[in-house]
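FYI - complex with iron/sulfur cluster, inputs then prediction.
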Amino acid sequence: MGFRRYGNGIAKGMALTFKHLFRKPITTQYPEERLNVSRRTRGTQIIWNRDTCIACSACARACPIGCIDMSTSRGEDKKLKVDNITIDFGLCIFCGLCVEACPVGNAIFLSYNWEYAEYQRSKLVLSNDELLYSNTKQVSGYYHPDVEKTLPEQTLLVNRTNRGKPWD
Ligand code: SF4
Ligand code: SF4
């Protein structure tokens, strides 16, 4: 009676365990192994392009949190220029509204990077040169289809389980 009640269940459980022993693992050994995120990801920083920015402050006005602080002045050529731009990434919710509001189109981006952590809250506040593009800080294709085309395709778990490792 005891075996009939519990034996079948135990046998089924053992069979399932045995089956999984020989399955290809689908876990990722982060940080040695990384999956490609969505090309339109809203990464954990904003990237500013000083060369194309016209200092209109539309991004700062569009921000629902008010975490972009910008001061501008007119240069000798009477054109507006940014004297200081500061973004508080401890407050930013990565909504992308600043990127969408920019009339220039290539002066502000969300980043493709998503690994961003600091031990001190104050280090999440970045200004001027710290907001520029760098080799370790790439721009995301969010709201920028031209950038999206240049980024690697997202690694999908379904590809990994059905067709092997797409990053090999
Ligand atoms: S992503 Fe959103 S919250 Fe962050 S700076 Fe831009 S508008 Fe503000
Ligand atoms: S909206 Fe664009 S052009 Fe205007 S200040 Fe912001 S980044 Fe510069």
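Residues 2-34 form one domain. Residues 31 and 82 are 38 Å apart (CA to CA).
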